Structures are given as structure tokens and as C-alpha cells.
What we know:
Helices cover 35% and strands 23% of the residues. The chain has nine helices and 13 strands. It has helices at residues 3-23, 74-86, 100-106, 121-124, 166-174, 186-194, 205-211, 240-255, 258-267; strands at 50-55, 58-59, 63-65, 71-72, 89-94, 112-113, 128-129, 134-143, 158-162, 179-183, 200-204, 219-231, 234-235. The relative contact order is 0.16. It binds arginine. Residues 56, 59, 63, 97, 115-118, 162, 165-166, 186, 204 line the site of arginine (ARG). Arginine binds at residues 56, 59, 63, 97, 115-118, 162, 165-166, 186, 204.
Amino acid sequence: MGKTRKFVVLLTVAALALSMFAVAGCEKKEDTDGTDTNGEATFTTIEAGKLLVGSDTEFPPFEFVDADGVVKGFDVDIMNAIGEKLGLEVTFMTEIFDTLIPTLKAGGKFDVIASGMTIKPERALEIDFTAPYYDSNQSLVMAKGTAYTGPEQLAGKKIGVQSGTTGEAWAKENAPDAELVPFGSATDAFAALQAGNVDAVVNDLPVSAELLKEDDRGLEIVAQIPTGEQYGFAVSKDNPELLAAIDEALADIKADGTYNDIYQKWFGILPE
Ligand code: ARG
């Protein structure tokens, strides 16, 4: 083979390698089980073919366990639609909200958090968030008929919050003279309020609305607190390929109408 020919062959090989690299999304991993449409491996999950999801499943309508023990909700449907796009079988695993981030960071238990979790800069230092998938706010819940005038009214009062949540952070900051009572779940905080063990609860607005929708507990949302929060799914910082894959699938289901259908199913309206 002459010198020029050898050079041409080499160039062709280099071009081919480059184009394959581009097709694979510039990722090359050894231990992978996700595949894109070209059959190129692009991301890893703990168990091949599965997407294990960590979630505090007492947060309706985002995640809750129904009478048959099945985990349902908006987050569940969205995760299932994402799993379908990625060819992964989705399994929800129940965890206390407060332990979700450390457990995800430690690795080995679940691949992603889907738990109505607000994207916050402090949290983003520890884990990576997807694009936002839901806009939310806080709410203050008290006994029905309470005339609420503002946070100063909460001084000396007991406020029930779910540990580690943005509701807890809001209460700490805006009602510094109240006594915060932390609970493992939002539903426990509501039960304590109903029992008269706390005077108020600060909790994500859509969840408070859902919890107070059916039964008459003698409680009501006395104030909506516009925090402008956005929920995101979260993945370990060690798994940027999975984050990219989930983000892509989320964008796909937003584009093809699946996201809107699921939103309409759970909230009865279309997202703004
Ligand atoms: N959005 C709030 C936060 O991120 C509360 C989330 C609680 N989620 C749950 N599944 N219990 O802090």
C-alpha cells in the first residue's frame, strides 16, 4: 500500500470512528445497559433493564399507595412514561423523604428520585436535577374558619412540617417565633393538626388541596404561599448519562402530548 493510500484509509477510519462517536452521543461506557435507537449503550442503571425510583409515597396526588398497595400518582405515571421511552421497567421504592438525597448519593439502592422534590440550589450541590416537570407553591393549613392575617400570627404557635422539606424551610424563615414540629410525612403532619397537636401545617399547595379534598377534616387552606417552586427528578452526580437520558425522555413526552394527558388526568386541567 502506497503512502497516500494508507493515509486515505486512515482518514476514513478516523471519520467513521468520529461519526459513530457522535451517534452514541459522545458517550462510551463499559458497563451499560441502556441502549438508544442505534443500539449503542448510553447509560447505566443499578439493575439492567430496570429504573428503580426512590420516593416518599405519602404525597398525593404525586405519589400514594392505594387500597391494594399499589403506588400511584402523577410522578408515577410520568416516570412510567419516561421508562417506556428508555425501555426500562419502573419500580417505585418507598423511602422517608429526608433520607432520599443521602441514599441516592450513597448509591446502590435506587437510580432516581421522583418525590415531588423541589429543585433547590443547596440540593443541586449534592445531586443532579432534571429539567422542571411541575410548578408548585406552599400552603398554610389551619382549623376551618381561622382568620389568618399573616406569619406574625404564628408566633408561639406549633407548626407541623415534613422534615427536610421546603415547607419546613419556609416556616423556619417566615415564622421564626413559632415552634416547628417535624413529621416523617405530610399525612402525619395533617393527622397531628386534625388531632389538635399542632396549630398549623405548612405543606406543598397541590398536596394540601388533595388531602383536604375528600373528607371533611375540619381543616382548610387559610393561605396560599407563592414560593414559585419547581419539581425535578434527581439522579446521582456519578450518572450524568442517565440524567441526560431522563431529560431527553421528559422532553419527548412533553412534545408528544403524553405529559399533558397525564397532567390532565391528575389535575383536571392542562399545565399553563
Ligand atoms: N416539594 C417539597 C420539597 O421538595 C416537599 C416534597 C415532599 N415530597 C414527598 N413525596 N413527601 O421539599
